[in-house]
Amino acid sequence: MFRSKWISQRADMVPWSGVRKMFNYAQKYSDVINLSLGEPDFDTPQHIIKAAIEAMKKGYTHYTPNAGLIEFREAVAEKLRKENGIDVDPETEVIATVGAMGALSLAMLTVVNPGDEVLIPNPGFASYEAQVILAEGKPVSYSLNEDEGFDINAEEIAGLITNKTRAILVNTPSNPTGSVLSEKSLKKIAEIAVENDLLVISDEAYEAITYDNFRHVSIASLPDMKDRTISIFSFSKTYAMTGWRIGFAAANEEIIRQMTKLQEHLAAHPSSISQMAAIAALRGPKDHIKKMVKEYSERRELIMEELAEIPEIKCFRPQGAFYVFPNIKAFKMSSEDFAMHILEKARVIIVPGTAFGNNGEGYVRISYAASKEEISRAMTRMKQALKT
Ligand SMILES: Cc1ncc(COP(=O)(O)O)c(C=O)c1O
Question: Pairing with 204, which of 3, 87, 196, 214 sits 20 to 30 Å away (CA)?
Answer without folding.
Answer: 196
